[in-house]
Design a protein that fits this description.
The protein is α+β, with helices and mostly antiparallel strands. It is built from four helices and five strands.
Amino acid sequence: MIVGIGVDLVDISRFERTLERTPRLLERLFSPAERLLKPRSLAARYAAKEALIKALGGSDGVHWTEIEITPEASGRPWFTLTGSTAAVVAERGITTLHLSMSHDAGFATAYVVAEAEARA
């Protein structure tokens, strides 16, 4: 059963300028592995994290660096959650998070669907 959806859109050049003005954002928003990626990929991951927060219905207990987007062997993006963020997702009964990301024409976008077991 779908319990939440979220979508976000990021202007990549604006995002890049923000990172240049405030370099510490990299440490506050991204895991060490993500920090090595190109700006367009970071923008897509930022959009994915925002979309996840929207799908969860808020950011209480969610920490940006506890959300990492990791590719499966096929390249499909997947959330790897740790700490209180993983606990928040589990407490809400969410069993599956679906993620789609893309970047093109200067924009990055992400869409998240949160699922839980159907209630009897």
